[in-house]
Amino acid sequence: MGCRRGWRSECAVRSRTGGWRMVGWMFDRKITKSHLIEGQIDPSLSLAQAGDLMPARHWQAGIVIPCKGDQCLITDCLQSLEDFRLAGNQIVVVDGDGSSELANFVQSRGMIYLHALDSRRGYAVSSGVSWLLQNGDIDTILICHADMRLTGGTRAAMVNAMPSNARSQWGWMGHRIDDRRWRYRLVEWGNYLRVAALRLPYGDQLMFVGVDLLRQIGGWPFQPTMEDMELSLRLRQISSPLHVHAPVLIGNRHWCGGIIKTTLRNWRTAWRYAANRRRPPERVTCTITKA
User: Fold this and answer.
1) Long-range contact list for 110-115, CB < 8 A, 24+ apart?
2) Which of 64, 66, 117, 120 could anchor a disulfide with 124, C-beta 3.0 to 4.6 Å?
3) Domain layout of the chain by residue ranges
4) Which of 81, 35, 78 is nearest to 58 (CA)?
5) Higher pLDDT residue, 48 or 111?
6) DSSP code of residue 156
7) Contacts 24+ apart (CB under 8 A), 101-109
């Protein structure tokens, strides 16, 4: 019998019937009686695959997706989160438009739908994060934009990368731009260097943060825009971001006005924000509709 050490380690033994049986989960590098579980596992599965099927309490994620009523755009995003949904992770869609069609669509898939009365993205994310903190037993919150598509194996990559103190960890995944032209590879490379040098991931790189660490900095930044930069500025004072190499796929619409022009505008916006970031935030309310 072999055991893999880490946040999500498991041990398997051969049962008398010839199948594999999962007998424990390691959280603190040892198995205690309270961690022991039993269940039949398909012997053709690897230990990592078998672990995803077990009902034990392990790493739990909550995903927040801000949007503005675009069901066509968000359909592919939700489909790419199927692994998270099947694992029982809570997915919260925060709609700034209050679309009844989108509400029905989200709720029919067993997800949470919120209507934010202020459609600006920062407030929408804050509404979703607040709901998860109040209603979900989770370790990590992921912020996924409506135009993102996660690749297969993203959840498994996160589970394997998470340390035992997942609730006190934050990080990013990176992105791939859905355009084959070489200039977009330069954009991806430049964004990676920014995080490596400045420890400043942005929201389009799929950021995640542990709930204990989020409470330590006073909660999610409550502001209409630039909430991702504000979050990184606060968190990097505590620790460096963890890079989970599972880049999400995003569209090239952000650079439609030209890569150089868009990059210079982004730099100018970031500099202006850094110079005025101490202004008091506004207030916003949301209406909660639970599936």
Assistant:
1) 110/85, 110/291, 111/78, 111/85, 111/291, 112/290, 112/291, 113/289, 113/290, 113/291, 114/286, 114/287, 114/288, 114/289, 115/286, 115/287, 115/288, 115/289
2) 66
3) 9-53, 61-276
4) 35
5) 111
6) H
7) 101/71, 102/67, 102/69, 102/70, 102/71, 102/74, 103/289, 105/71, 105/75, 106/78, 106/291, 107/289, 107/291, 109/78, 109/85
Q: End-to-end alpha-carbon separation of the chain, Å? A: 43
Residue whose entry in the numeric block shows the structure tokens 């502001």: 223
**Two tokens, residue 207:** 């950021």
Model pTM score = 0.76
Distances (CA, A) of 107 to 3, 45, 110, 143, 287: 39, 32, 5, 19, 15
pLDDT in tens, 176-228: 999 999 999 999 999 999 999 999 999 999 999 999 999 999 999 999 989 99
pLDDT for position 37: 32
More confident residue, 256 or 92: 92
Distances (CA, A) of 223 to 25, 124, 151, 200, 207: 40, 10, 30, 18, 17
Six-digit token pair at 124?
């929408």
CATH topology assigned to domain 61-276: Spore Coat Polysaccharide Biosynthesis Protein SpsA; Chain A (3.90.550)
The mean pLDDT of 145-169, rounded to a whole number, is 90
Q: Give the tokens for residue 170.
A: 């934050």
**CA of 246: how far to CAs of 67, 69, 92, 232, 254, in Å?**
22, 27, 21, 19, 21
Q: Which candidate, 114, 99, 264, places its Cα nearest to that of 190? A: 264
Q: How distant, in Å, are the alpha carbons of 222, 232, 270, 274, 284 from that of 279? A: 11, 17, 15, 11, 16
